[in-house]
Amino acid sequence: MEGVGGNETIPRWPCFVFLVGAMGCLICSSLTHLLACHSKRFNLFFWRLDYAGISLMIVTSFVPPIYYIFLCHPNIRFIYLASIIIFGILAVITLLAPALNTPRFRHFRAYLFLAMGFSGVIPIVHSVILYWGHRPIIISFFYELLMALFYATGVGFYVSRIPERLKPGAFDIAGHSHQIFHVFVLAGALTHYAATLVIMDWRAGCPTC
Predict the structure, then answer these.
(1) Binding site residues, as ranges?
(2) Domain carrying residue 133
(3) Residues 98-148: pLDDT tens digits?
(4) How many domains does the chain have?
(5) Where do the annotations place Zn(2+) binding (predicted)?
(6) Residue ranges for the binding site for Zn(2+)?
(7) Does a structural domain hold residue 7?
């Protein structure tokens, strides 16, 4: 790692990890919506790929904030990162089960992803307590709250299937819940990226550990 200080640089790879994870998720989703209708075999494969992509983005989104905020606390940083990686692996293994790919478990899948995301509450609250007097940490905290609101709202549309269930057939091409869900996911990812930039700038200006 390069030195951490006011005039020195910090590692950029944690931010790149998140960007790769986010792009990977969106690529998996795009391929799924494009090719899943090809056949039953393709449908099963690509929806599993889509779930793996979502898990990838959730896990990688934890890397930059935890890495930079807890840079001076390597043991805590390791515990948090190891925990979310294990959580993500278990989620992928669970979602690869054919039975959980059925519409019956639509709500279960949504709430599992939501639980993964909201597990970040613990390190976020910890960071605020640890660096309460640091304004950038508070700013990033509110960014993350906004991100959580975007994700939760998107999941709400995904689970409720509003508006198409209120007027069947009217939203088959555009405006249905899954499209709205993706808009909120993208908004959440961009908000998280904004929080990451604030944290990176703060860490680069901190005194050496």
Answers:
(1) 33, 178, 182
(2) 13-204
(3) 777 677 777 887 788 878 878 888 999 999 999 998 999 999 999 999 999
(4) 1
(5) 33, 178, 182
(6) 33, 178, 182
(7) no
